[in-house]
Amino acid sequence: MTILEQIDKINRQLTAKGYKLTSQREITLQILLENENDHLSAEEVFMLVRAKFPEIGLATVYRTLELLSELHIVEKMNFGDGVARFDLRDDSHAHMHHHLICTDCGLVKEIKDDWLSEIEKRIENEFGFKVTDHRLDFTGSFNNCTSGDCKRKSKAVS
Amino acid sequence: MTILEQIDKINRQLTAKGYKLTSQREITLQILLENENDHLSAEEVFMLVRAKFPEIGLATVYRTLELLSELHIVEKMNFGDGVARFDLRDDSHAHMHHHLICTDCGLVKEIKDDWLSEIEKRIENEFGFKVTDHRLDFTGSFNNCTSGDCKRKSKAVS
DNA sequence: ATTCATGCAAACCATTTGCAGATCA
DNA sequence: TGATCTGCAAATGGTTTGCATGAAT
Which domain of life is it from (chains A, B) (predicted)? Predict the structure, then answer.
């Protein structure tokens, strides 16, 4: 699916709920799509959006991210560094979206693998709990990480 | 291990690093031990501690929790409700500490089961990443949860 | 004496909100 | 026209920090 097709799909989701796809929202979506693996903070999204749309206000970015979050279009997450971070949600990867967080250099590597479907079934049976989403983060360090000087394949979280 | 024995053990960990077990810190530890499964926020810890030690300041509680967190005596976590929550860490359960978060009533149920040891081995082999800790939270809902009126076995997170 | 710890109040900073004007259906 | 949306600035609220005092070795 191209970026335009994705935006178009999201546009339909928005209008279905009575929301409008304004220029501000469209550009915010573009930024999120262009940085799909980066776990951007609201401030970072704001700066990137402002480069294309200087009049935008920070509050609008927060409101957009909040809205997209409620509609489950983006996922709001927290790595414990005091800021919320956002990622576009890819439904096909709902059960395959985990993180390796390196405590030496701060790198956050995203890994996609289906590890939990089995466990989720057991949870439903054993606890009577219907899982709609999960979060699985590992902290530790990369064997080849020379503290603070990792090859950064993803956005680092200080 | 009794509470006193646990405090004694932690006292040794503190003095080993040059920190003192002050009355404030001891009472804070007591509160954490008495509420081991409750995921208390700093404010909640503060209120409980103040009941036993009215002169204590909120900043001291924050500093104590931060200290214990750095020493890996408590675990600092975040369920996305805007406040940090704290739990005493039990090393024997390091790999068996997960959460079921009910989106209907806010209940956070803690479950202890060893699901990830296997996966952690695979991560070390496949990614060259040595796991020291992890976090596994499931969101969803309990089948018997009549929204907002769950049997609360644990501390709810609004 | 020196180092560490505390309480208080002020500062900080990410996020939210009130409001008046702009935009879209 | 009425609803939604935006930008700005102010408010909020959890957390941190500066500083002078207090405790412990």
Answer: Bacteria
